[in-house]
Amino acid sequence: MPSSPNHVLEFPGGYTRSVGPVIGRFLSELRDGRLVGVRTAGGRVLVPPTEYDPDTGAAVTDEWVEVGPAGTVQSWSWVPNPRPDHPLDRPFAWALIKPDGADTALLHALDMGEFEAGAEPPRFLKTGLRVRPKWRAERGGGIGDIECFRPEVTMINAPTRLEYTLDPGRALSRFLESISQGRILGHRCPVCDSVIVPMKGMCSRDGVPTTEEVEVADTGTVTTFAVNNIPDPRAPEVPFVSAYILLDGADLTMLALVAGIPADQVRIGMRVKAAWRPREEWGPTMNNIRWFEPLDEPDVPFERIKDYV
């Protein structure tokens, strides 16, 4: 059975019509970069304006109210594969947007950013989303003078980098020297007998100088930790874990990364071991230790490490 031919209805040169004083005022304000609504006898502000109150059928007043330009998404429908005649050439949403100060919503395109064709709607697209119009540079008095709406800016990513020179002093220099040899050194306090790692040249508890060196193991116990979801160049992946680790033979914890295990499986009391970089990459820096990885040993009971949490 032959298929039906396509039919096209077209007005050469376009379809010209008068818009009347109410719609005409609305379109004129759009041309000037403003959103306005008209007030009804009952006090409601209609956007887009109509000549009659849709609730009562009474003529609207002559009072015009500037609204927005920001507004709130009332409902939306995602378009994963735009058609050639759609306002955007990438996935977007049709949304009912109620401008601030209005009592009704207008339908317009909502640009949520760059997405591949067929993409699912982003998680932050939801009812209640705050949006603002993107105006065209050249406007002629039509709803298309607003190219689209876009979400309000609620977050920025500011590149941040701080370079500084650190004078390590005698104690830290000695500590980094030992790290460059694959050893971890601490200082023993002559008063409280605590082994301080990294060595600082003094005991902060007793306020006395420390000089006696003690080598500690590169194994230890996680005393507390945090799961991080912000990328870090030192971390193998996101999310990653930073933890305070009590090295075997030390009496103060040391902050380090934990890897080699899913972030949601890291736990207090877990036994770990330093993952050293290849020997040829060593230098006087803590970067010699990439991170700490789990040991196949039983967890340490909380009672034994509770004073370090």
UniProtKB/TrEMBL annotation:
User: Start and end of every ChsH2 C-terminal OB-fold domain?
Assistant: 64-136, 213-277
Output the SUPFAM superfamilies linked to this UniProt entry. Answer: Nucleic acid-binding proteins (SSF50249)
Identify the Pfam families for this entry: OB_ChsH2_C
| Cited PANTHER family | BLR3430 PROTEIN
Name-wise, this protein is: ChsH2 C-terminal OB-fold domain-containing protein
